[in-house]
């Protein structure tokens, strides 16, 4: 009898010991997993010493997830107040250029925890009807953010629209302006390709690029064709320089952003006075798409829309040569003004 009681006691102690060890191992594993789930990008620099102003995991998840609900108008005023959220005017704007990589740049900058992007192109400064609605209308189009974050919007039509520089200057004369450019001929063909796809989708016919880019009467480059005119970067930049010093502009290499994005993003971080937070971890190459995709954390990845990276139609080499020769003096002046040289032919 005594022997059976002792055996039963030993069995109970064994079970309790096993449970204790199992619980301990679970806690160790749990702590380890929480460690890995800490925010990728704590904020320091102008936002406080590193380690003191880190965004908590819950706040980071809130920014990436629940802010979407606020943008849809599903939040109460009390929820907004409790989370200390505001709609701020942008402190930086990607003003152009069309088909230079403005969407890719905006999405990549949104990897930084101190940046919040406006999801849609607002077209406030280039659209007379929108501009007449006033600055508060514009502010209400901005996403909710924390006070220490900066809001960035992009509308590439801003760069080529004559009224825009003065209008932005009146809003904020010290705003930072981002311009992303690609090799001018490639950009013009990309511009044409996007319009062509839209025409084909509607079963409409469209001229070949060569017929639009070259004036049939003079056999010279057709500067009235918008895709060509947009690629004369220096002409548009000179208009902006009447209002803003060159120091308020940062030129992003759109071609390099495709093949080697991190160095370009690091230059933008520096220009915006942001602490360096975007790393190679946040960018991974998708061989199927042929582009870099974005990694916000261990569970949230994002690739750009499938419309990015359209296959360009074949263009007569003599037309390409003529266009590159035409753009060359404008490119040289652009290098001189901006202080940045590109390997454009």
From TrEMBL:
The keyword Transmembrane applies. GO terms for cellular component: Golgi membrane. One of its GO terms (molecular function) is [heparan sulfate]-glucosamine 3-sulfotransferase activity. The active site is at 99 (for sulfotransferase activity). Residues 90-334 form the Sulfotransferase domain. It is an enzyme of class 2 (transferase). Disulfide bonds join 293-303. It holds the Pfam family Sulfotransfer_1. 3'-phosphoadenylyl sulfate binds at residues 99-103, 182, 190, 292, 308-312. Its EC number is 2.8.2.-. It is found in: Golgi apparatus membrane. The chain crosses the membrane at residues 12-29. It is a single-pass type II membrane protein. Keywords: Disulfide bond, Glycoprotein, Golgi apparatus, Membrane, Signal-anchor, Transferase, Transmembrane, Transmembrane helix. It catalyses: alpha-D-glucosaminyl-[heparan sulfate](n) + 3'-phosphoadenylyl sulfate = 3-sulfo-alpha-D-glucosaminyl-[heparan sulfate](n) + adenosine 3',5'-bisphosphate + H(+). The keyword Transmembrane applies. Belongs to the sulfotransferase 1 family. PANTHER family: HEPARAN SULFATE GLUCOSAMINE 3-O-SULFOTRANSFERASE 5 (PTHR10605:SF46), HEPARAN SULFATE SULFOTRANSFERASE (PTHR10605). This is Sulfotransferase. It comes from Asarcornis scutulata.
